């Protein structure tokens, strides 16, 4: 049995990539003082009886560095979109102009920048935990194979592989966090 054991490192990589993708999505929702259409991705609007992403009820544009506009397709949803943005916690005050909602992006003050930096740190920690959970799953598979007769040398080999993979992804998370914090603190 021990000769047949092959840890599915591709599966572990795929799951760790998923943790990184989730981190990038969470980071995109953090305002950095510059307008970005991606900052509205987590905002959902109650439309047609279900929760819908904003980009599915209107066109999101960034006409200038400190302005995001949403051209809502259905006039009946304009107030719901505006309410969803107000309640989203983005700290943006929407301005209405017919079916167009304008979102002026205010300058971030020092205190708000520090808060966003802490939030980014929390997002990164969630990603690290997700990567470590994948690592634990890999190690559990190795332990099970060891109980089924895997040699100690093979066990050490696979444990080293999993640990190196984990270390690489934790390093990616840390680099992403550092980049995002620099972006947030940039005036």
Automatic annotation (TrEMBL):
Compartments, as annotated in UniProt: Cytoplasm
Pfam entry (one): RRF
Keyword field contains Cytoplasm: yes
InterPro entries in the record: Ribosome_recyc_fac (IPR002661), Ribosome_recyc_fac_dom (IPR023584), RRF_sf (IPR036191)
Residues spanning the signal sequence: none
GO cellular component: cytosol
GO terms, biological process: cytoplasmic translational termination
Residues spanning the membrane: none
Keyword field: Cytoplasm, Protein biosynthesis
Record domain Ribosome recycling factor: where: 23-185
SUPFAM superfamilies recorded: Ribosome recycling factor, RRF (SSF55194)
GO molecular function, one term: ribosomal large subunit binding
NCBIfam families: frr
Sequence similarity: Belongs to the RRF family.
HAMAP family found in the cross-reference section: RRF (MF_00040)
Described function: Responsible for the release of ribosomes from messenger RNA at the termination of protein biosynthesis. May increase the efficiency of translation by recycling ribosomes from one round of translation to another.
Protein name: Ribosome-recycling factor
Organism: Salipiger bermudensis (strain DSM 26914 / JCM 13377 / KCTC 12554 / HTCC2601) (Pelagibaca bermudensis)
């Amino acid at each position: 049995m021990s000769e047949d054991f092959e840890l599915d490192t591709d599966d572990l990589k795929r799951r760790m990539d998923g943790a990184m993708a989730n981190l990038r999505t969470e980071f995109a929702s953090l305002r950095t003082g510059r307008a970005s259409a991606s900052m509205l991705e987590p905002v959902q609007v109650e439309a047609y009886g279900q929760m819908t992403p904003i980009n599915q009820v209107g066109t999101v544009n960034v006409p200038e560095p400190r302005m995001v506009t949403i051209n809502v397709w259905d006039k009946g949803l304009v107030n719901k979109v505006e309410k969803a943005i107000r309640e989203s916690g983005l700290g943006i005050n929407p301005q209405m102009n017919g079916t167009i909602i304008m979102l002026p992006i205010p300058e971030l003050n020092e205190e708000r920048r520090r808060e966003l930096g802490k939030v980014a740190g929390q997002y990164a920690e969630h990603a690290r935990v997700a990567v470590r959970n994948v690592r634990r799953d890999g190690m559990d598979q190795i332990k099970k194979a060891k109980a089924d007769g895997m040699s100690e040398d093979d066990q050490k080999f696979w444990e080293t592989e999993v640990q190196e993979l984990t270390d690489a992804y934790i390093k990616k998370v840390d680099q992403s966090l550092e980049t995002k914090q620099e972006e947030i603190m940039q005036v």
